[in-house]
Structure formats: C-alpha cells, structure tokens
Amino acid sequence: MAFPNPERADARRNVAGRLLCLTVLAATATPLAAAGQTVSSATLVSDFRTMCMATNASREGALAEAEKRRWVQFPTKGFAQGNETFIEARRSGDRFLLVSENPGDLLGADGKQRIRVRYKVCRVFARVDDPKAVITFAEGVVGPIKPYSADTFAREWFYSRTDAGPRPLITNGDAVEAARAGRFRQLMVSDEQTPARAKNTALSYTVVVTP
C-alpha cells in the first residue's frame, strides 16, 4: 500500500481507495437499515470512544464492553466479505457494533516489498440526529491532519498514534514503521444520506499491526 504526498488531492483519493480495497472491506459493507429510531450523535460518539478507541479495536475489549452494556449478539450476514479471520456483531436498540479482523499487506519503504499485516476493525453505526457532529468529533481526534478523502457526510484519515499526538502517514516507510510499532490508525466517518439507503452514520476505527 503506497502512501503518496497527502497534499495532493489525486494522491489522497488514490491511497484511500487502495487501502480500502486491500484492508477494510469487512468494515465498509453497507450497514443494515436501522429500525427507524434516531439516536443522538453524542451517544454514537460515546459508544465509539468506549468500545473502539479505548480498546484499540481489540475484539476482546470491544465485545467485553458490549457485554457490560448488555448489547446482544446480531447476525453478521451482509457484512462479511469472505477474508475475515474473525467477525462478530452486537446490537443495542438501534445502535450496532461490528468487530472484525482480516489479513492484508503494506508496501515496504522500497515500494516493492510487501509487509504482511493484520487489520483490527471496530465500527459502530446508527441513525443519528446530527451526522455533521460526528464528523466534528472525528476532526477533533486527528487535529490538523487532512483527510485522505472527504465529502459532505464522510471523512477518512490515516495516521500514526504517538505520545505527542496523531502524526500523518506520508510514505510507505511511515506506514510500515507505524504498523510495526502498533501505532497505525485509520479513522473513518461514513454516512448514507439518500432515501433509498440506510441513512446510518458510521464511525470506524482500524488498527494495523504486524503479525
């Protein structure tokens, strides 16, 4: 997976699309439609902080938090892409949690070698009252880092989580180094806003690590 200069718009689109294709397809399947009830954006953000970010997208941690909150098991049909080594879903009312793991690779610093990695994905979604507030939350997490892709209701960032705060991933070497240190992160907000679609807002947190 190449990491070209994020200042270039075409590069941002390219790297975002390529990373999604190779890494997080399980996390980007269209969510099932909610039952029609709207929840507050603050509630979705709270769920995300607790079950995904605080646990570093750990399947054990995320599911343990869901169990503590008495979220119930939910079928994963419609989410699985076929390459997952693990996938489970939970539900609480009209809020959903999807946790998965799948193998993939990153391009090495030389742009040729492929480094085997594992993608840990934690995602929450629901129909919320203020989708833009969810984007504002995500922007607060990454600070000045520019998104690799963005539109009215969606944003996507790749970064390294360091003690000094988030740092952008610019080169292949940056990405591999971050993965080896357990610091590679992808944060994504997506939203289905057309009448024919689910109208769910989703927050997705991916941690990339070497096996």
Element-by-element helix/strand order: HHHEEEEHEEEHEE
Which structural class matches the secondary elements? alpha+beta
Q: Hey, roughly how much beta strand do the residues contain?
A: 25-35%
The value of Rg in angstroms is 16 Å
| Number of H- or I-type helical stretches | 5
The major β-sheet equals: 9 strands, antiparallel
Principal-axes shape call: globular
How many structural domains? 1
Averaged pLDDT? 83
The count of β-strands is: 9
Low-confidence parts lasting 5 or more residues at pLDDT below 50? 3-35
Q: Which tags fit this structure?
A:
211 residues; 5 helices; 27% helix; 32% strand; disordered N terminus
Summarize the structure.
By secondary structure, the protein is an alpha+beta fold. The chain is built from five helices and nine strands. The chain has one domain.
Question: What would you note in describing this structure?
Answer:
- The chain has 211 residues and is an alpha+beta fold.
- It has one domain (9-209).
- The chain is built from five helices and nine strands, in the order H-H-H-E-E-E-E-H-E-E-E-H-E-E.
- Strands 1, 2, 3, 4, 5, 6, 7, 8 and 9 form a nine-stranded antiparallel beta sheet that branches.
